[in-house]
Write a structure and sequence with these properties.
Layout lengths: L11 E6 L9 H9 L5 E6 H11 L4 H6 L3 H16 L1 E4 L3 E3 L4 H4 L8 E5 L8 H5 L6 E8 L4 H12 L6 H4 L2 H15 L7 E4 L1 H4 L4 H5 L6 H7 L5 E3 L21 E6 L18 E7 L5 H10 L6 E7 L9 H9 L4 E5 H7 L13 H11 L4 E4 L5 E2 L3 H12 L3 E4 L3 E4 L4 E4 L5 E8 L14 H11 L1 E6 L4 E4 L8 H10 L2 E4 H11 L5 H14 L11 E7 L6 H10 L7 E7 L6 H15 L2 E6 L13 H22 L5 E5 L3 E3 L4 H7 L4 E7 L11 E3 L12 E2 L2 E2 L7 E3 L9 E3 L6 E5 H5 L14 H11 L4 E11 L3
Parallel strand pairs: 1-2, 1-3, 5-7, 10-11, 10-13, 11-12, 15-19, 16-20, 22-23, 22-25, 23-24, 27-34
Antiparallel strand pairs: 3-6, 4-8, 5-6, 9-19, 13-18, 14-20, 15-18, 16-17, 17-21, 25-33, 26-34, 27-33, 28-31, 29-30, 32-34
Helix pairs in contact: 4-7, 7-9, 13-14
Protein name: Glycosyltransferase
Organism: Azospirillum endophyticum
InterPro entries: GlycoTrfase_DXD_sugar-bd_CS, Mannan_Polymerase_Subunit, Nucleotide-diphossugar_trans
């Protein structure tokens, strides 16, 4: 959407590559520009497209274009000419968009019509920059411009003059751009559309070349800190000068590790050496539960270490049909997986195992797995966690380099999907990450939990152990069915070395999702928890359900019935109502039930405030929308300020919903977004909530100004907007506007100032205005197309 306050730069993104056959490492980066900027048109240029464009539009520059010895100079020239002709945004393919760039363009100082970013300060201290006396460097990898901006004419003139420079940095690249800008700024100043906005590195270039190439971005804490303010991140692939570039994020060149050797001096035994890569047996103990299991097996299948096997010990009989464990093994398509059923082991052992009540302990099951391992090394492989594809490769490299018998991770990631929390753990020996030479592996004690702690303690006493620091190799998931209770994980949260919630948790999970199936796992855990809520041991989030009510007596019994069916701990649910202008006794009806409600729920607040608004015409008529939604926004804000306490989330819920699933709240929370809505439909299945939409106008996603009525956009149904029924089958989609029939908002956003505008904010009001205000805060609203709730048909 563009209004008078928006940047004049066209909502159009340009990218280039040699052909349409884009390297796999660049494809997700390209998608990031398209998916995070749904209001922008997108144009992709090949070398052939570029030469045709220059031949048609700038034939006089063809000799310059064809005369460059290095192809990258042709691309530099092309990007300047493309922006001069069409305007918009140009981004190299090794750039990733992290958040919608509307916020970047709309915040330009002085209404500048051209945008360029500064490279990191460290680049100004590199030899070539020092030789040229350039303490700061402007980078052409991201540029934005209005068509025919005067700086581009100035730049092209300098470029023609420098066409014979031997170094591409001086001929067409950053050094030329930097010098040309210095000359231009001296002549034109820094105000108005003719000005050039030079953005600080943290917005577009938050990391240096060395930080990318050394693999430092694999450190989750560094990545999160570096990208906090960034709209995009440049990976400095340098395909024109770096061999092997374009493969994706580099792994760390160096890994911090500490070696301890507990063997007595007179009992030294040599560390086993093996020719080639030794076989590693990954050991999984499971009861075959559906959900996370398939991701743990898939994580094994995707390991980069080639010489491996997975031994699965299952303590439950196979189901006669469609056994989830058998299905997951088949889906992995990996030949080196062996399944051991404990019942068969009992038979082979003459039923000596598991005679005690309750069957085998976890420790005994792990010993069975070790006994069936064929590898020189064994590796614990739990059935409900996520593993980076290079986990085995990196642990084995460090173990071999240290000449150790065993390797452990000193930190790992801990993820609470239902609570949208992520942490880098405290520093300790994380037993679940153990990779150990089988010959020195102690036996597990017959314990039902904590069985691996004595094993690691004994290894520390008797063997050479290396502890490495690379937390992204292993993500421990807190899903409610873990061996330990919720209080254990709350302690780990408090002890963790880094904690991420809200938007930063989402951002880091998306980064991890490039290598892990984060979104699929989140959905699986939500379904798993919904199917078996009794095992959900994790402490639920505190949620405040807020509902403005007016003439709602006919709907409130069903409202309370549905609320009572939610599979969320009622001791963690608070309620808040604001009644106003009712003529049917709504306030008294609720007041009579307050004592009962306060016994059932954590807190209950009932407020009253009227505005005297009782229109004679239907509530959907355009001529009253501005006033109706203004008062609804004011009611929501008044209710929020009067009812919000220490809750983690706010669920705005309409009083006249007639049906929704008991897992509604669990699935909204499991989406892991700061603002999320389900798909609200009428009883006949048609979409009801037309405030939840994505703009899809002809001009790059802009709303049609003809649809402005009383200062707010009120298009006819389907005119330039896509509602959630247009995205059936998609798990989650970004939205430009949201409705309030069932709207989940992280409470901290409200505390930080996010409210329901009672005025026109960029042409939007109330819930739609909240979504637009959130975008200004760098937060995207999301919708779940296949999570349906039903609204009364009126």
């Amino acid at each position: 959407m563009r209004t008078a306050s928006c940047s004049p730069i066209p909502r159009l993104i340009h990218q280039t590559w040699k052909t349409r056959d884009i390297p796999p490492g660049f494809q997700p980066l390209r998608r990031s520009w398209i998916e995070r900027n749904p209001g922008f048109a997108y144009r992709f240029w090949t070398d052939e497209d570029i030469e045709g464009f220059i031949a048609e539009e700038h034939p006089a520059l063809l000799p310059v274009f064809r005369g460059y010895a290095n192809p990258i100079s042709r691309i530099d020239l092309a990007r300047y000419l493309i922006l001069r002709r069409f305007g918009g945004v140009y981004a190299d393919l090794d750039f990733e968009c992290l958040r919608p760039i509307d916020g970047l363009l709309d915040s330009l100082p002085g209404g500048a019509g051209f945008v360029v970013g500064l490279e990191p300060e460290e680049h100004g201290r590199l030899a070539k920059a020092v030789e040229r006396g350039l303490p700061r460097i402007l980078c052409p990898s991201f540029l934005a411009s209005v068509p025919d901006h005067p700086f581009l004419d100035h730049l092209l003139a300098r470029l023609v003059e420098a066409r014979h420079c031997a170094d591409v940095l001086d001929a067409t690249g950053p050094f030329l751009l930097t010098r040309a800008h210095a000359e231009y700024e001296a002549a034109h100043g820094t105000e108005g559309t003719a000005a050039v906005a030079v953005l600080p590195p943290e917005l577009l270039y938050p990391v240096t070349k060395e930080e990318c190439w050394s693999g430092r971005l694999f450190d989750p804490v560094f990545w999160e800190q570096a990208t906090r303010r960034a709209y995009a991140i440049h990976y400095w692939e340098g395909t024109w000068f770096r061999e092997g570039a374009g493969h994706g994020v580099d792994l760390p060149r160096q890994v911090a590790a500490v070696v301890t050797d507990g063997r007595p001096e007179n009992a030294r035994s040599p560390v086993a050496k093996a020719e080639g890569l030794p076989l590693i047996s990954c050991l999984m103990v499971t009861r075959g539960r559906a959900g996370p299991l398939e991701f743990a097996i898939d994580g094994f299948a995707r390991q980069t270490y080639p010489n491996r096997e997975l031994v699965i010990v299952c303590d439950s009989p196979a189901l006669p049909q469609d056994d989830p464990l058998e299905r997951a093994i088949g889906a992995a398509g990996c030949p080196n997986i062996r399944l051991v059923r404990v019942e068969a082991v009992r038979v082979e052992a003459g039923k000596r195992l598991g005679d005690q009540p309750g069957g085998l302990t976890l420790g005994e099951l792990r010993n069975i797995a070790v006994d069936h391992a064929a590898g020189r090394y064994v590796c614990q492989w739990d059935d409900d966690d996520l593993y980076d594809p290079c986990r085995l490769e990196m642990q084995q490299l460090v173990l071999a380099a240290a000449g150790a018998h065993a390797c452990l991770l000193g930190r790992w990631m801990i993820w609470w999907p239902a609570q949208a929390r992520l942490a880098v753990s405290a520093e300790r020996d994380w037993e679940g990450s153990l990779l150990c030479e089988k010959a020195v592996m102690p036996r597990y004690p017959a314990l039902r939990q904590g069985e691996d702690t004595p094993v690691v303690k004994e290894l520390r006493r008797s063997a050479r152990v290396v502890r490495m620091d690379m937390p992204r190799l292993y993500t421990y998931v807190v899903h409610g069915g873990n061996t330990f209770a919720a209080s254990h994980f709350e302690t780990q949260w408090q002890l963790s070395t880094a904690r991420f919630g809200g938007e930063r948790c989402r951002a880091l999970l998306e980064e991890m999702g490039k290598r892990l199936p984060v979104e699929g796992y989140r959905q699986a855990v939500a379904a798993f928890a919904s199917a078996a809520p009794a095992i959900a041991g994790a402490l639920p989030e505190k949620v405040l359900v807020l509902t403005p009510v007016k003439d709602a007596v006919a709907h409130l019994p069903r409202y309370l019935e549905l609320l009572g069916r939610l599979d969320h701990d009622r001791s963690r649910l608070s309620l808040g109502f604001l009644e106003g202008d009712s003529g049917d006794g709504t306030h008294d009806w609720l007041a009579e039930r307050l004592p009962e409600l306060r016994q059932r729920y954590r807190r209950v607040t009932l407020l009253r405030h009227g505005y005297g608004f009782r229109p004679e015409i239907p509530r959907w008529r355009p001529e009253i929308q501005r006033r109706r939604r203004e008062l609804l926004a004011r009611s929501r804000n008044r209710l929020l300020s009067g009812a919000l306490g220490d809750e983690d989330w706010v669920l705005w819920l309409d009083a006249d919903l007639v049906d929704y699933p008991p897992e509604l709240l669990a699935r909204l929370l499991a989406a892991g977004r700061d603002i999320v809505v389900p798909h609200c439909v009428r009883p006949d299945g048609r979409t009801f909530d037309l405030n939840s939409f994505r703009v899809a106008g002809k001009e790059g996603g802009e709303e049609d100004p003809r649809h402005l009525v009383d200062g707010i956009f009120q298009p006819p149904r389907g005119a330039g907007r896509l509602y959630l029924d247009a995205f059936a089958g998609e798990a989650i989609v970004p939205l430009d506007g949201v409705g309030g029939t069932a709207l989940l908002v992280r409470a901290d956003l409200h505390r930080e100032g996010l409210c329901f505008p009672s005025y026109s904010h960029r042409g939007y009001i109330e819930t739609e205005g909240l979504a637009m205000m959130a975008r200004d805060m760098g937060v995207t609203a999301w919708g779940l197309p296949d999570l349906r709730i039903v609204h009364a048909d009126h």
